[in-house]
Design goal:
single chain; 72% helix; elongated; disordered C terminus; Protein ROH1-like; transmembrane helix; membrane
């Protein structure tokens, strides 16, 4: 599916874009305003880059890897926004902290589930290697072994992963927490919550797409709806991405496919072609065709394994970013708590001992 026209990026006057997030009678200093504008524009550009230009990109392991890379960049950007806002954690509302910590745990669980599924899929590569080894031989016994391994691979790939199934309920809970928290009397706080809303929308959307692809079902694929009144600079890009990808995933599953992963489907096609050729343990008379099918399987297996490895590394990277952000918040909270305790004790004329 090619893009029919150049993406239309919204252009809003600054006052209109942020009027709804600021307290009445307040004005936003230039630095926080610029930080928010820069963040939203970068998020929009990042989402446009994920909009597939071709249907064959949906859903490939390479597209999944780019999607997780995009999440890594966005989660890194929000740290820069917090730094530019000069809005210390000690000024956060306790509800913001609770929501952030709760959501970060859920994201870590999702990363673990995705890594588990990628590892499970990669285990099938050993079966394919065994198949290819036996197909190199001409004995009936080894051809029968290859046939058995081909059947074993298909059973392995079609099995379900409970961890990924559990992702769906985790994502549902994250979706319920998407709404912007109420912020009173803090322009910087409203800006921070607005930026974090963009992070959460992109994160939930992409994780939902990947979970649906891994689960082999579109029934839990969710279409997120964002408030158009927010005038988010990334809104058009997000809507286009969600429509393109979700529509294609649903269309693919309607055809009866058990997987929408392009690389996995290519290997499965080769396996289906080789199964009748090896079932009787007799080498087919169509020698050239048989060798072509073996070559197809070898190439497909290599692409699948390489794609799974690269995606696994990106998921691990995202896990570390989420974990480091969570650790940094907890560390800042401890420092803030300690400083507050020191100030209180000094006021009482007490001395704290350091061990």
């Amino acid at each position: 599916m090619s893009r029919t026209q150049d993406p239309h990026r919204p252009s809003f006057p600054f006052g209109n874009a942020f009027r709804k997030i600021l307290p009445k009678g307040s004005s936003l200093p230039p630095k926080p305003a610029e930080a928010l504008t820069r963040f939203e524009k970068k998020l929009g550009d990042r989402l446009w880059k994920l909009v597939p230009e071709n249907k064959n990109d949906i859903v490939s392991l390479s597209w999944m890897r780019r999607a997780i890379q995009s999440l890594c960049e966005t989660h890194t950007d929000i740290k820069d926004v917090m730094s530019e806002l000069d809005f210390p954690v000690s000024d956060w509302d306790v509800k913001w902290v609770d929501v952030y910590l709760d959501n970060s745990v859920k994201l870590l669980d999702i990363c673990i589930a995705f890594s588990s599924e990628l590892s499970r899929l990669n285990q099938g590569h050993l079966l394919l290697q065994f198949v290819l080894h036996n197909l190199d031989a001409s004995s009936s016994k080894q051809l029968m072994r290859a046939s058995t391994s081909l059947d074993g691979w298909r059973q392995h790939i079609s099995s379900k992963n409970p961890r990924v199934e559990n992702c769906l309920s985790i994502l549902y809970n994250l979706i319920q927490s998407l709404n912007l928290p109420k912020v009173k009397n803090s322009a910087k706080g409203k800006v921070l919550m607005r930026a974090m809303y963009g992070v959460k929308v992109q994160t939930v959307c992409i994780c939902n797409m990947l979970a649906a692809a891994f689960c082999g079902s579109a029934k839990n694929l969710v279409d997120l709806h964002i408030d158009d009144r927010g005038n988010y600079l990334w809104a058009n890009a997000f809507k286009e991405l969600q429509i393109r990808v979700n529509t294609e995933i649903r269309d693919l599953f309607r055809t009866g496919r058990s997987s929408v992963l392009k690389e996995l489907e290519a290997v499965d096609t080769s396996v289906k072609a080789l199964e009748p050729m090896t079932r009787d343990g007799v080498k087919p008379e169509e020698g050239n065709l048989f060798q072509d099918r073996i070559a197809d399987l070898g190439n497909g297996a290599e692409k699948l394994s390489r794609g799974l490895d690269l995606l696994t590394k990106e998921v691990d990277h995202f896990f570390q970013i989420v974990l480091s952000g969570r650790d940094a918040l907890l560390s800042n909270l401890r420092v803030s708590s300690t400083n507050s305790e020191i100030s209180e004790n000094k006021a009482k004329g007490q001395t704290l001992l350091s061990f």
